[in-house]
Specification:
It is a single chain. This protein is mainly α. It has one domain. The protein has five helices and no strands. α2 runs parallel beside α5. The protein is globular and about 30 Å long. The relative contact order is 0.18.
Length: 86
């Protein structure tokens, strides 16, 4: 059908969504994960945007590792840029 919106695609498994939901929301990486899951931003894109590995992104999202001190300003700016989307 011409003009129809593209079908919604899910970039996250139920397992990642559950682990993120159960993780400590005070952690920057977990908070970023919740936002990216909500907006369905692919991990591959986040990895490229932040210049870190996809494995690091998943570790942040699940609360296994916290965002390193040297990356916090960059991650915070990225988080804010997602929040400011229309």
């Amino acid at each position: 059908m011409q003009g129809a919106p593209a079908p919604f695609t899910m970039n996250y498994t139920k397992k990642i969504i559950r682990i993120n939901a159960d993780a400590d929301s005070s952690l920057m990486g977990v908070a970023l994960g919740r936002l990216c899951i909500y907006f369905n931003i692919p991990v591959n894109q986040i990895s490229k945007d932040l210049d870190v590995s996809k494995a690091a992104i998943y570790r942040w999202f699940t609360g296994k590792h916290e965002v390193g001190k040297h990356l916090r300003p960059k991650v915070d700016a990225y988080y804010r840029s997602i929040l400011s989307r229309p």
